[in-house]
Amino acid sequence: MKKINPSIIYPIENWQVSESEYTLETNQRSETIFTVGNGYIGIRGCTEETMPELENHTLPGTYINGFYETAPIIYGEAAYGYAENHQTILNVPNALPFEITVDGEKITLFSGKITDYSRKLSFKTGLFERQFTWTSEKTGKQLKIIFSRLASFTRKHVAAIKINIQPVNFMAADIQVTSSLQGAVTNQEHDGDPRAGAAFSGQVLNTEKVIQQSGILGLFQRTTSSKLEIASGIKHSIPGSVSQKQDFWSESWQFDGSTSIEISKFIGYATSEKDNIQTLCTELEKASKAGFAQLVQEQVDYLDLFWNRADIGVTGDDALQQALRFNAFHLLQSVGRDGRTNIAAKGVTGEGYEGHYFWDTEIFIFPFFAFTQPEIAKKLLEYRYSILPNAKKRARDLACSGALFPWRTINGEEASAYYPAGTAQIHINADIMHALKLYTEVTNDTDFLNEKGLEMLIETSRFYMDYGDFVEGRGFTINGVTGPDEYTALINNNTYTNMMVKDQLEFLLTSLTDEARIKFNISDIEIKNWTLAAKNMYIHRTNSALIGQDDSFLNKGKWPFETTREDQYPLLLHFHPMKIYQKQVLKQADLILAMVLQSERFSDEEKQVNYDYYEPLTTHDSSLSPATHAIIAAELGRMEQAVSFFYYTARTDLDDYHHNVKDGVHTAAMAGSWLTIVYGFAGLRIKNGELHFQPRLPDKWTGYQFRITFQGRIIEVQTTTSGTNFTLIQGNSIQLFSDGNPIQL
Amino acid sequence: MKKINPSIIYPIENWQVSESEYTLETNQRSETIFTVGNGYIGIRGCTEETMPELENHTLPGTYINGFYETAPIIYGEAAYGYAENHQTILNVPNALPFEITVDGEKITLFSGKITDYSRKLSFKTGLFERQFTWTSEKTGKQLKIIFSRLASFTRKHVAAIKINIQPVNFMAADIQVTSSLQGAVTNQEHDGDPRAGAAFSGQVLNTEKVIQQSGILGLFQRTTSSKLEIASGIKHSIPGSVSQKQDFWSESWQFDGSTSIEISKFIGYATSEKDNIQTLCTELEKASKAGFAQLVQEQVDYLDLFWNRADIGVTGDDALQQALRFNAFHLLQSVGRDGRTNIAAKGVTGEGYEGHYFWDTEIFIFPFFAFTQPEIAKKLLEYRYSILPNAKKRARDLACSGALFPWRTINGEEASAYYPAGTAQIHINADIMHALKLYTEVTNDTDFLNEKGLEMLIETSRFYMDYGDFVEGRGFTINGVTGPDEYTALINNNTYTNMMVKDQLEFLLTSLTDEARIKFNISDIEIKNWTLAAKNMYIHRTNSALIGQDDSFLNKGKWPFETTREDQYPLLLHFHPMKIYQKQVLKQADLILAMVLQSERFSDEEKQVNYDYYEPLTTHDSSLSPATHAIIAAELGRMEQAVSFFYYTARTDLDDYHHNVKDGVHTAAMAGSWLTIVYGFAGLRIKNGELHFQPRLPDKWTGYQFRITFQGRIIEVQTTTSGTNFTLIQGNSIQLFSDGNPIQL
User: Fold this and answer.
1) Are the CB atoms for B589 and B679 separated by under 8 Å?
2) Contact B83/B422 with Cβ under 8 angstroms?
3) Is the dihedral of CA B149, B154, B155, B156 positive or negative?
4) B interface mutation test: which of A576, A580, A585 has the most B CBs within 10 A?
């Protein structure tokens, strides 16, 4: 495995992440880390005060999940069926700005003397707090300033900021505070890294209306190309009566410095509602009426319930403990839960990967929600169902029947501009169906399966049947695909893909109802073909336990790791794809991932042999890779490797392993840390609809614990040095298995 | 094989192509057919008179071989090592325009009554003639107008037009003639077909100087981005003294209609010379001094010599006879012969494929020149040597040592914007080396081999050794390539590629000199590796005579030909590449081409079995395909198929099989017709440096004949129904073989 040299950036704390120093060089990274989000709104942890010193060191970003601009994809050489449009998550009007002046002097982090600085995000309260003491170098006057910020978990359209200004060493001053909404925002410019940046430049939000009613200052805007609407606004609340001035999109107040000042700013965004202006105004009214304290209380209550089902921990390693909670919290902040949105690779924390949804959702993130917040998991599947019409159309683009889900998308259209590592990853269909199967097993929600799930299952299977071929002497083959490993492209019979499709077809055959057969016009021949394909799915096994990642992988030369310099990783930024594809080298887990998801289809010997073969060939240049390896390493009892990989996935963002946290968090890696504990160290697998564990505890730790929700129950799993305890926290009695032994709870 | 329905467009004539009707719908195609060129200048067969009616039915194009504009290639998703710039052959100032008015009425093909119209191009005189009789519908006055045009084969920088205006039924009229040079020209706009159109729009030639000296009207211009210079100009000559008016770039004359009018217009272009303006003026002076008649005489003399070595014919099929000469003539018109240019896929007849040079040169066109005009063949290799520095740099882009020639280029830089069907075709190296070997065998020119050839041979071999791998149990493998068949991409061990590389390595090992070993720092280990790779080159043979096109081809499903409609060809315009790549379907000959070029490496049984297997899977969507199939069909005695394929390649342009002659001729298909006669029906192969023939005569024909130049000799081969005669036309006695029997000439 590639060596990582972790170095702790933020103090290790139990229920929060914080910093006590402000440095320009790392500010943009911290803005990502301190993002507040509610799955719809995301506001990066930027300062309320604007300062010229920040230029190039800040990404003042507020994002709305699913709100994007489109731009035509330009190809050097186009071809039939290529994806047509970029979709890019949009930076929306910035509601942060506060300007504070004292005796005419503007308070910023660079204008006076700053002491007692801190920025912190609490996982228990959902509150982001930033504070510092400012001392004028001219007058010596000192003020303590505290900003509290939240994106309401209970009010989709609402965020809020409370600013508290305390005079420290004076009784009188001319204090002026201005709060505004900035509508003229742009996205980040592309800087050459294919993983970051937008396809257009300049402002694409056009203001159609200024909103001014009931103290709300707002804007109604429309995107230039995608024509999506957004209403954004602010409304202030301030105790007592103060001198006040209101402008189009700012409001100013004058204070005499004799007492503390407190201003609450309620922030609203509405998109894709029937009446966005109305929604905005109603929600802002309600929020301001409730007040900031009430909003905080709602956050606390919501998070109490969340942690009751989702808390997870390691004892004996506080850095991992912090990371597990940081990750779970950020997942909650990132996940769309309205059935029309999903969870982007960067959540709502940045513009990396253009805010697209990938398979990351279903394979890495979905289990976390399925086992802790199944109602959110269902919404993720509903999103997929909502884009099924696009997926059907996409299958036609490939001259196939059925449906092919887009490799990367926001609005349901394929947005991958490089099909060999995009559209060719047709395993996306099976990945989504894997999530459907998991959801069904975890919840027993057959209603969803029958109402929406089956249609997806049938149509995606139809695509595979059409794209694949029965080839004499081989069985059912699926050629011309790219598997999970993006350092190998356009190959035949990717084992991961074929096994996942086999599983999906088996799931389909057992789930099929008579109603569905009639509704979807399924003939006996079609069922026979599904059966045959599932039974005779081609897997590239060899005459040893070694399995080919695909038909050709084992015949390639090995990547020259010995002559590859440290600064040449990730390979994709330093080598031509042709050169990478022609060698035995992996970006990320591929067959190893199949060993996690299709555990029972591999013998123990196969797991060992293939792990030993593929792991040394894997660069882990993808943040998706370490968790998978951690899980299998744990299963194989390679505890040191497992812990090492676990560190990698768990602290990817907190320790900025990929040096790109400034562009946003890595939601899949975050979820990977949960997966590693639950699937890896606790060894959870579902077999025949029942829970099986195989708990292992690394030497370095004294224990780990987590809770899962399963078929209406909440079960706590607690491993210590003296063994594992399973506790039924809620729900009816159930039988589960630990190391194969039945346990009745 | 795909059915073609040939339909003769132009009358079948022996030494010319002509039309006697002018139709707007097909005009652009005819402009291509009637192009005059000299390998440097190309002028499409457009009208001298300009008419609004022509809009969208004309491509007024004049091209200079090797003169191009660049533009950055924009990728939907860029990656390391991608080609950076488009290069596009440029439409240069148009020197055709003549405007004729009679009594104020402008003469065009649409303004009066047109009779006796014709347009013709003679292969014996190299002259393009256009004539018609025009009758005024107002006055009834009738004039006969004849335009003669040539691009001088003996004067690289010169073209010329003579206009002859004859009063038919009147003695007096106010006749005004204006001739001009139009500097404001643009390229064709991209129309969605990836095979046509430029990467930029608008005018990119910027005029820096107006040339006015010694009666020359000219322009000195520079391209916006590539910064290349071009000087273009016209100079007129007119017998007697007439009233004349000169403008910046036009000249007008007044006539009284009493006698015939004759005006000669000498046209010059100079690029990439030390002093382009000086060259232009000198060459125009000399040409106008010589006069039009002298230029015609030079053409005739030049073509006499050309046909003496290059004439080729079929007796018993006049359509084929015409095509063979049309093709040979156009190849001569298209081929760059200054060592700094090459032959574009469309020659100098259009903008298709952006004027790029491909492997078409070495594999399809080169043999024609090597066996008929070896001095031109040498220039083609010198061009490759001139871009060897670029090829070395390109190899570095792929993290390899040695040199990799660009798949498509003008200036030596890779210009392929889709690497799976571009850069991945690394067989380009071996193709060029195949031409080097052929040139050396045909000419015995070891000086060229030692001075320039060996360096290319060594550096391209070094690339292969680095890109390929010795893989245990397989030998030397070359993975991650695309072979000639572009409907299969990024595969391993393409048989064509591997065999060509094997041959190149063997050629290198026998050609290597002690001087070269020292000069190029070649170690014993390097030689040992070349030897091992050549000896153990992996070829994907099966346990039958069937050979895999590559490692995976035979394991794929077959293309659904039965459900593919006629209007869905070419597949590349109607199916996603992924879908095409995953099936057994070929765009063009691949293994079959290896059977032509590496004939001795296949048994007779292998040739039969593989032809029968691959041919039905081949769409021939590439114009490169039919000739290759014709050759092997002839070798296998499948004479009907051979003739059918021969028709396809021979009359590709005359009968416009691909419906895109409007964008330019298909030089490789043209050369394919020569190849089919010589390699196919006459069965020419070089074995151990000696000529071997295996002549066969299709039933339909009464004979065929051609001449080849070989090691200083000219040999005529004439097959009739009573057998084949070999005649030594020039040079020393030589032994050759026919059907294995030695013949002494």
Assistant:
1) no
2) yes
3) positive
4) A576
Burial of B375 (0-12, 13-18, 19+ CB in 10 A): exposed
B-proximal residues of A, 543-562, CB under 8 Å: 551-552, 555-557
Strands B216-223, A16-19: pairing is unpaired
Sheet holding B723-730, edge to edge: B312-315, B703-710, B713-720, B723-730
Asked if B518 reaches chain A (Cβ–Cβ under 8 Å), the answer is no
Is the distance from CB of A583 to CB of A557 less than 8 angstroms? Answer: yes
For residue A243, the model assigns a pLDDT of 72
Strand A723-730 with B469-471, pairing: unpaired
Plot region of A473 (φ>0 → left; ψ -120 to 50 → alpha; else → beta) = left
- Stretch B585-609: mean pLDDT: 97
Q: Which chain B residues in 278-317 lie under 8 Å from chain A, judged by CB atoms?
A: none
pLDDT tens digits, one per residue of B389-399: 999 999 999 99
The vertex-A392 CA angle with A390 and A394, nearest 5°, equals 70
Quick: pLDDT tens for A406-443: 999 999 999 999 999 999 999 999 999 999 999 999 99
- Reading phi first (left if > 0) and then psi (alpha if -120 to 50, else beta), residue B25 is in alpha
- pLDDT-above-90 percentage for chain A: 92
Give B413's contacts (C-beta < 8 A, 6+ positions apart).
B83, B84, B85, B87, B390, B394, B406
Is the pLDDT at A739 greater than 70? The verdict is: yes
Token pair, residue B232, equals 């273009």
Tracing tokens 């489109």 back to the chain, one arrives at A70
Partner A contacted by B477 (CB < 8 A): yes
Q: d(Cα B132, Cα B20) in Å, to the nearest integer?
A: 10
Task: Identify the active-site residue in A69, A362, A459, A486.
Answer: A486
- For B9-37, the DSSP string reads -SPP-SSEEEES---HHHHHHHHHHT-EE
Residues 387-426 (B) with a CB less than 8 A from some CB of A: 397-400, 416-420, 422-424
Distance, CA of B307 to CA of B309 (rounded, Å)? 5
What pLDDT does A454 receive?
Answer: 98
Q: How far apart are CA A467 and CA B560, in angstroms?
A: 12
* A78 interfaces chain B, CB cutoff of 8 Å: yes
Is A486 marked active-site? yes
DSSP letters of A151-211? E-SS-TTEEEEEEEEEESS-S---EEEEEE-B----PPPP-S-TTS--SS-S--EEEEEEE
Residue B690 in 3-state DSSP?
A: strand
A739 in the Ramachandran plot: left (φ > 0), alpha (ψ -120 to 50) or beta? left
Q: Contact at 8 Å (CB) between A57 and A24?
A: yes
Residues 6 or more apart in contact with residue B643 via CB below 8 angstroms = B630, B698, B700
Complete domains list, chain B, with CATH: 34-53+62-280 (2.70.98.40)
- Specify the DSSP element, H or E, that contains A223: strand A216-223
Alpha-carbon span B516 to A120, nearest angstrom: 69
Q: How many helices (H) and strands (E) does chain A have?
A: 19, 30
Q: Which two tokens stand for residue A214?
A: 């009931």
From residue A571, alpha-carbon distances to A561, A585, A712, B81, B420 in Å are: 11, 10, 45, 12, 19
Q: How far apart are CA B689 and CA B700, in angstroms?
A: 33
The predicted pLDDT at position A191 comes to 55
**Sole residue written with tokens 């024509």:** A227
**A:B CB pairs within 8 Å:** 181
> Per-residue pLDDT averaged across A650-666, rounded?
94
Angle at Cα A310 formed by Cα A305 and Cα A313, nearest 5°? 125
How far is the C-alpha of A345 from the C-alpha of A342, rounded, in Å? 10
pLDDT, position B248: 77
